[in-house]
Amino acid sequence: MNRPGDNHGCHTLPQLDTATGHLSAHLADVAAARTPSEALAAIARMEAAAREAREWLAVDLVLREGWSYADVARPLGITRQAASKAYAEAVNTRMRRTVRGRAEELVIVGCGEAKLNRPAPAGRMYTGSYHAACRRAADRLGGRLIILSARYGLITPDTWIEPYELRMGQPGAVTVPTLRAQARQLNIDTAGTVTVLAGRDYADPISVIWPHAARPLDTTRGIGQQRARLAELARGVTTEVAPELGTNRSTT
Description:
Elements: H1 13-20, H2 23-32, H3 36-65, H4 69-76, H5 80-101, E1 105-110, E2 120-121, H6 122-125, H7 129-141, E3 144-149, E4 153-155, E5 160-161, H8 176-185, E6 193-197, H9 200-209, H10 222-235
Parallel strand pairs: 1-3, 1-6
Antiparallel strand pairs: 2-5, 3-4
């Protein structure tokens, strides 16, 4: 982009990465393709992701940076009228979603190591007792349930997935830019109330997307205290749920 002021406001390089950084994963898929069919499929996925990222960034610039449609049109090489036609509806939709999203409640639980040995909906894939404890607490808290999978990212309980062996932070795990894109696709990126029931390796990426997310397990030490806190939440016991900045690490 050539417009003066590109480096002002929300659009510094790291924040641009949350809007467009997931494209690198698609580019890697193109480079890793072993057959023409795989290459064509990877290019198609990358093109779809690029269109989505371009729209998101253009709308963000209009709503948050005050760009006109002429400003958006200039780096795209199109006319102001074409930019208005392309993005005006998306701008209005985002504005309505933002207003509605402030009232939405979201509960995000981490995935689990113990899994079924066959494809299944995410809501049934994880069989471990820790994940079950998170789910019971999430049920009590209420709100829309989302599962954070190290492989698949942000998914709904009815999303069919395959078994895998991967944890957040490991090579190949889902990245923050991809999680950001998924949050947009699920229409949950503007959620007003977010609670994450997971250890720090899982909760930290969520806090990048939703800085206001409550993290009730942050003040616990070890799996035993985490289970006790989850049991309290499941019983409806009042407990500290504000985001914490402590240094002790725990895992799910």
